[in-house]
Design goal:
single chain, 2 helices
């Protein structure tokens, strides 16, 4: 009786060990590398979209800031206002960059 119980336990342990080994091999050697490749491809696509969106917004903000600065140069008060406008534009550009890093998108 004890020998039969020992044989059953040994067989169950061996079966579990073989099953775990095969599962580990399948996950680590086949499934996980494929999953990593898929994640890398998707990440690169999303990053490219975010960079394109950001570059368009930055270009437009810089263009608007420069146009405002050039048209408002003549007086000291205007120069002060232009400086403030340029600073505001810089803050907006930084905000857009932070929004992209956080995953938010401005329209």
């Amino acid at each position: 009786m004890a020998m039969t119980l020992l044989e059953i336990l040994f067989t169950a342990f061996a079966s579990a060990a073989i099953t775990l080994s095969i599962t580990y091999f399948l996950i680590m050697r086949i499934w996980l590398p494929d999953l990593r490749r898929q994640i890398d491809v998707e990440f690169e696509e999303k990053l490219e979209i975010a960079l394109d969106s950001l570059s368009k917004e930055v270009r437009e903000s810089v263009r608007q800031g420069v146009l405002q600065a050039v048209t408002e140069i003549p007086t000291t008060d205007t120069l002060k206002g232009t400086t403030q406008t340029m600073a505001k534009t810089g803050v907006e550009i930084m905000g857009m960059g932070l929004d992209v890093m956080r995953g938010k998108r401005r329209e």
